[in-house]
Amino acid sequence: VAALPLLLHQYIVNQPHHPGVVSPDQQRHACAPQPGTSGAAARAPSTGKPSFTNAFDIRSVGCSGDPTMFEAFWRETGDAAELVIPGWQTMSYFSDVGNVCWFMEPLFDQQVRRLHRTVGNAAVDGYHVLVGTGSTQLFMAALYALSPADADQPTSVVSTAPYYSSYPAVTDFLRSGLFRWAGDANSFVGDSYIELVCSPNNPDGAIRDAVLSSGAGKAVHDLAYYWPQYTPITRRADHDIMLFTVSKSTGHAGTRIGWALVKDREVARRMTKFVELNTIGVSKDSQLRAAKVLGAVSDGYDVGGGGASRHRLFDFGRRKMVERWRMLREAAAASGAFSLPAETSGQCNFANETAANNPAFAWLRCDREDVEDCAGFLRGHKILTRSGNQFGADPRYVRVSMLDRDDAYDIFISRLASLK
Amino acid sequence: VAALPLLLHQYIVNQPHHPGVVSPDQQRHACAPQPGTSGAAARAPSTGKPSFTNAFDIRSVGCSGDPTMFEAFWRETGDAAELVIPGWQTMSYFSDVGNVCWFMEPLFDQQVRRLHRTVGNAAVDGYHVLVGTGSTQLFMAALYALSPADADQPTSVVSTAPYYSSYPAVTDFLRSGLFRWAGDANSFVGDSYIELVCSPNNPDGAIRDAVLSSGAGKAVHDLAYYWPQYTPITRRADHDIMLFTVSKSTGHAGTRIGWALVKDREVARRMTKFVELNTIGVSKDSQLRAAKVLGAVSDGYDVGGGGASRHRLFDFGRRKMVERWRMLREAAAASGAFSLPAETSGQCNFANETAANNPAFAWLRCDREDVEDCAGFLRGHKILTRSGNQFGADPRYVRVSMLDRDDAYDIFISRLASLK
Ligand SMILES: Cc1ncc(COP(=O)(O)O)c(C=O)c1O
Ligand SMILES: Cc1ncc(COP(=O)(O)O)c(C=O)c1O
């Protein structure tokens, strides 16, 4: 298994659209209900995938990383997180012409810094904040900023397997001459590279450090899941480039807002330039909504100000995740056919207590001798998952989302428990 | 002059960051006031570039295409175009899983179709609507969708000079192996290409058709300015791929919403895939705001429904543009040092009368014998413009925005009139 992903990806690199690997497109459509629901709700804002009252949807359990679990929390907060936008507001391309990131709303910058100070998960002093259309756009921006423009060869992009399935797909889809996917970081040989460090890791929840170190190498730390609902906050991270997203911190994936904390001004400038050329900045409406939502989260813990609200996102999130992981471990034990990563824990500086690691995804291994394709096996039992081979790993593994709505999660658990 | 742009661009194609051509980054920063204003308004949403009460800003007249002229209209409409978003709304990555464009809000799709039916500027029946983070993202999506994935060579991307300065920059910044800028369409030799047809054209306002035709060639029609405030609506456009944006139709550039009308389902699918890989979809908040705003525009003309509001965007816009073009022609005549494209007009099927072409940019030529660099000359007189050479044209030309706020436009006019 160890050598296979690398071989596979060396093959992929020269191919335009990754034959042999299911693209995120196919993945996502595999996750989605069947066509036929289009336009159903044309008079109202969308609600994401249809709920389980619709029979056709019963199959779509647990596949995508859609964070709809958090909806229940935000329904409770009332108008504390409600945004009103008058017709004439923020019409300009520009937001803050004196900032490196000239299209960033100052309110957003402010609330990002405030939340990191509240949680203590990342340093912000001396950092540039950059806003992106999701952290996915900032991931591409980082590749662009860190690849030398005058190099003969594209810079190699690597990550320890199992790695987030979008990394290879997003790196290679335009066949850029600046950067190119080069597979598992552990098998990489060379001096010049960009290492993606995802911690806690998607798909397996592992706490990670960079495995490579060379003067010419660079690291991008994807800290999408470094929040108290998922993992103990053991230190204030202070890497050169750190990526975050509201998709995973607050659950607002539809708002498409991510941010980067960047130490070096020139890197910040080049990342900003990427976003400028790619989309001429980032939706102000989304930035203002994200600022509102992040502000509401900080308000929940603002004890110093005396105004701490009773709505505390990380308490809600941790309670949910602890409960769901307990259910999952019980279901796996009841079934006997699956194993899960061992539970780890640590001292959480935010909660001021020992807390377990409760990853946003379950990295499930099928232990049955006769099953080599775990995703296929589960699909046959109406559980949709992403196969391990999409993450550069063994297809005996699958990734399951832990962030779906309660009804979907409950169905997943009861189906899993009944499998022998 | 005719051969120069092509030579220049053949040179550029092999260079990562276009030495010798001012990048949009530099352009935009040249347009912006000096640093030092950062964070000034951190308690409120941004208002774009500071107004002219600030002395440092006096220089930034007329440079970018920021459509702040329309703010005055939207301040009049009251809550007809106001959007309220509860904290729990549209949190999912998904909007409409049965649609090719699975991340598009059905309300947005609906209002786009309604507005085109109201205005009569483009066919929508039998078309897929796709939403993008500005039409800039959909421009890249079209290049991705139209470039054969298995070609040995990148597909050539061309447009008749003078062309929108972003086309070469956006095409080449990632040095894609799929597509590559190849300069002026009129000098192109070959069978396989993507021709960008911008009509009315940025920068010169010309009404354009494709100049190339071959079985293997493709065209993308950028109709950002094909709206009644800028030009007579002479026909219902029905090209294979048509791009539009709220940035120019309603003035909401900060919302970052564009759309494509696409005939072919496979092309629509590949464009959607681009947006999925690039940013996992498009802000729902922005889509809902755009739907609200487009709906308010249609409401202004909904005579059949009996509910036509008294706020009519295209009437406002046309009145403004007519007035501004009159002022500009008078100022150019008073100065004697500049010439402008001749005024053209046509029968507007929307307004049901003859209407002039009133472009969103003035394509100004400096007629003084001693001035070869018109942008430099104007900069010396505190008028910032984009030089013709950024559009593949003669630096005796400059592009000036006609969509700035009244105060900025008035200063520009008085400065121009006083130049001899
Ligand atoms: C590790 C990681 N990074 C980034 C993302 C994408 O986040 P965004 O929605 O901000 O683009 C995800 C989403 O699943 C993720 O798991
Ligand atoms: C011709 C043309 N197309 C596209 C755009 C970009 O529009 P958007 O703001 O939707 O990305 C512009 C903006 O100036 C333009 O002039």
Automatic annotation (TrEMBL), chains A, B:
Needed cofactors: pyridoxal 5'-phosphate
Keywords per UniProt: Pyridoxal phosphate
BP terms from Gene Ontology: amino acid metabolic process
Keyword RNA-binding in annotation: no
GO MF, one annotated term: carbon-sulfur lyase activity
Transmembrane region(s): none
Entry keyword Amino-acid biosynthesis: no
Alliinase C-terminal domain ranges (all copies): 64-419
Region (Disordered): 22-51
Entries under Pfam families matching the protein: Alliinase_C
Signal peptide stretch: none
InterPro entries tied to this protein: Alliinase_C, Alliinase_N_sf, Ethylene_sulfur-biosynth, PyrdxlP-dep_Trfase, PyrdxlP-dep_Trfase_major, PyrdxlP-dep_Trfase_small
Record-linked PANTHER family: BIFUNCTIONAL ASPARTATE AMINOTRANSFERASE AND GLUTAMATE/ASPARTATE-PREPHENATE AMINOTRANSFERASE-RELATED (PTHR43795), TRYPTOPHAN AMINOTRANSFERASE-RELATED PROTEIN 2 (PTHR43795:SF111)
Protein family (similarity comment): Belongs to the alliinase family.
Protein name in the entry: Alliinase C-terminal domain-containing protein
Taxonomic source organism: Aegilops tauschii subsp. strangulata
